[in-house]
C-alpha cells in the first residue's frame, strides 16, 4: 500500500510537471515538420492543434520523442505499454501528412478517428491523470467530425450515393471503372488460359472461380504438381478497389498482382515470361488479337496489363449498394439492425470504403492473441512484416473485402474458419474484445449477406 501511495504521488507530481511545460512541447520531428510544411488550410491547422494539444502522437506516431519524465520507473513501463498498444491499433502519421500536404486521409484512419471521437475514448483515463489538460472538448469533437465528413464528401463518397449516406464509413460500388474494351476482351481470355502455368494445368480462374465468389473454396490453393500455398486465396471480385494486393500488400497494383502467380514456383510455376510467351505465340488467333491491342508485341507487362484490365470489370453490386443509393426497401429490419451492429462493434473501422475492406493493414489479434489460441505460427503469419521488415507490422494483414463474403469461405488469411457465424464471433473476440450474443451474430451475418452481389455483364467487342 505504501508503494502504491508513493507511486500515486509520483504520478501526480509528474502530471504537474507536465502541465508546467514538459508534456506539451512538440516532439522535435513534428516541430521541424510544422515549420517546413505548415497545414494546408485553417481547418487543417485547427485539426493538427487538436492532435498536438491532446498529445495523440505520443502513443500513435512512430516519430514521437517522449518527454524526459517518460524514463522514470513506473512511468516508463506505462508509457511503453501505451505506445505499443497505440501503434498496434492506429498510427496517425498519415493524418499529419494529410493535414500538411493536402493529400486525402486514408479511409480506415478516418473511420478509426471517428469512432474514438464519437465515443470519447481518447485520450485514455490513465493518460489524462498524467496529462491533466488533455481531453476531448466539445468544439474539438465537432471540428474533428466536420473534418472527417469533408474528407469523405470530397474524396470518398460514391457518385450517386444518397445524400444521407455520403458520410458513411462504407460506400456503394461505382457503376463501373474506366477500362479499354480491347484489353478487357484479351484479358478475359488470358485469365482462363492454363498455358500461363508450367504444365498447362493452372490458370488464374483455377484459384479465382468466378462462379464461386471469385475463390476456389479451399483453405489454401493447390498449384502445379499439387503444391500447396501458404495463405487462403482472396476473391478477385472488386479487387481493383483494394489499395494494395495480396494479404501482405506486396503488390501495389492489380497488374503487379497478376504477374505474381505465373512465376511463383508453388502456384503456376513457369520459369519466365519468355517460357509463357513461347507457348502463347503458337496460337495465331490469340497472337493476332494481342497485336491488335498491343502493337509492340508480346511481353509479361502486356499480358498482366490485359488481365488486370479484365479484373477491373469484376464489380458486383449488391442489395446493400441499392440501399446506400436510396432504395429504402433494399434491406429488411434484421439486415438494417445488423448494419448498425456492424458499425457499433467497430467492424466499420477497418472494413471501410467501397470494398468494405482492402484499404489498410490491421494486426490479427488486437484484443486477444489469435496465434497463441491457434497454437502455432508460420512465416506467412508475419504478414505485412514480410514486406516491410518492420516488427510493428508482424501479424498485420490487408483487411479483406466483405463483399460476397457469404460465398468466400473459408475465412481469414489462414483459411481456418469455415462458417461465417464463427468468423464474425471470432473477429469480435480477437479484434474488438467483445463476446457477441447469438442474436447479434445472426443480425450481422444477415447484413453481410446483403453484400452478395451480381457480376455485371461487360460488353466485349
UniProtKB/TrEMBL annotation:
UniProt keyword list: Heme, Iron, Metal-binding, Oxidoreductase, Peroxidase
Gene3D superfamilies named among the record's database cross-references: Cytochrome c-like domain
InterPro entries: Cyt_c-like_dom, Cyt_c-like_dom_sf, Cytochrome_c_Peroxidase/MauG, Di-haem_cyt_c_peroxidsae, Haem-bd
Record GO terms (molecular function): cytochrome-c peroxidase activity; electron transfer activity; heme binding; metal ion binding
SUPFAM superfamilies in UniProt: Cytochrome c
Enzyme class of the recorded protein, top EC level: oxidoreductase
UniProt cross-references to PROSITE patterns, sorted A to Z: CYTC
GO terms under cellular component: cell envelope
This enzyme's EC code(s): 1.11.1.5
Limits of the Cytochrome c domain: 182-284, 333-452
Subcellular location: Cell envelope
PANTHER family linked: CYTOCHROME C PEROXIDASE-RELATED
Protein's UniProt name: Cytochrome C peroxidase (Cpp-like)
Organism from which the protein derives: Paraburkholderia ribeironis
Taxonomic classification: Bacteria, Pseudomonadati, Pseudomonadota, Betaproteobacteria, Burkholderiales
Amino acid at each position: 500500500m505504501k508503494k502504491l501511495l508513493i507511486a500515486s504521488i509520483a504520478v501526480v507530481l509528474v502530471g504537474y510537471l507536465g502541465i508546467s511545460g514538459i508534456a506539451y512541447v512538440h516532439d522535435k520531428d513534428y516541430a521541424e515538420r510544422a515549420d517546413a510544411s505548415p497545414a494546408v488550410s485553417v481547418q487543417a491547422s485547427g485539426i493538427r492543434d487538436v492532435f498536438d494539444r491532446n498529445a495523440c502522437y505520443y502513443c500513435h506516431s512512430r516519430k514521437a520523442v517522449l518527454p524526459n519524465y517518460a524514463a522514470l520507473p513506473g512511468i516508463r513501463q506505462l508509457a511503453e505499454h501505451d505506445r505499443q498498444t497505440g501503434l498496434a491499433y492506429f498510427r496517425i502519421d498519415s493524418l499529419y501528412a494529410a493535414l500538411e500536404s493536402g493529400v486525402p486521409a486514408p479511409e480506415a484512419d478516418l473511420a478509426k478517428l471517428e469512432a474514438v471521437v464519437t465515443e470519447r475514448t481518447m485520450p485514455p483515463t490513465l493518460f489524462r491523470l498524467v496529462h491533466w489538460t488533455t481531453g476531448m472538448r466539445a468544439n474539438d469533437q465537432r471540428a474533428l467530425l466536420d473534418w472527417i465528413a469533408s474528407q469523405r464528401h470530397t474524396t470518398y463518397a460514391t457518385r450517386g450515393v444518397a445524400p444521407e449516406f455520403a458520410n458513411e464509413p462504407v460506400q456503394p460500388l461505382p457503376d463501373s471503372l474506366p477500362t479499354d474494351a480491347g484489353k478487357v476482351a484479351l484479358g478475359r481470355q488470358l485469365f482462363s488460359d492454363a498455358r500461363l502455368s508450367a504444365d498447362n494445368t493452372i490458370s488464374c480462374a483455377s484459384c479465382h472461380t468466378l462462379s464461386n465468389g471469385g475463390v476456389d473454396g479451399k483453405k489454401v490453393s493447390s498449384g502445379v504438381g499439387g503444391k500447396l500455398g501458404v495463405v487462403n486465396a482472396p476473391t478477385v471480385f472488386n479487387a481493383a478497389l483494394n489499395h494494395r494486393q495480396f494479404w501482405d500488400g506486396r503488390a501495389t497494383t492489380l497488374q503487379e498482382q497478376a504477374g505474381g502467380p505465373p512465376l511463383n514456383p508453388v502456384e503456376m510455376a513457369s520459369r519466365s515470361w519468355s517460357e509463357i510467351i513461347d507457348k502463347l505465340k503458337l496460337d495465331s488467333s490469340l497472337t493476332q488479337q494481342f497485336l491488335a491491342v498491343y502493337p509492340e508485341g508480346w511481353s509479361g507487362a502486356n499480358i498482366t496489363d490485359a488481365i488486370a484490365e479484365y479484373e477491373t470489370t469484376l464489380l458486383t453490386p449488391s442489395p446493400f449498394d441499392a440501399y446506400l443509393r436510396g432504395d429504402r426497401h433494399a434491406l429488411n429490419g434484421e439486415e438494417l439492425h445488423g448494419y448498425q451492429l456492424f458499425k457499433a462493434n467497430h467492424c466499420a473501422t477497418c472494413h471501410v470504403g467501397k470494398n468494405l475492406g482492402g484499404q489498410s493493414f490491421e494486426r490479427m489479434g488486437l484484443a486477444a492473441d489469435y496465434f497463441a489460441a491457434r497454437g502455432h505460427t508460420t512465416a506467412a503469419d508475419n504478414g505485412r512484416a514480410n514486406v516491410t521488415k518492420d516488427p510493428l507490422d508482424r501479424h498485420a494483414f490487408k483487411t479483406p473485402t466483405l463483399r460476397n463474403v457469404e460465398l468466400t469461405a473459408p475465412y481469414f488469411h489462414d483459411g481456418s474458419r469455415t462458417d461465417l457465424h464463427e468468423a464474425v464471433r471470432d473477429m469480435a473476440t480477437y479484434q474488438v474484445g467483445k463476446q457477441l450474443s447469438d442474436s447479434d451474430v445472426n443480425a450481422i451475418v444477415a447484413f453481410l449477406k446483403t453484400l452478395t452481389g451480381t457480376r455485371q455483364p461487360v460488353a466485349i467487342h
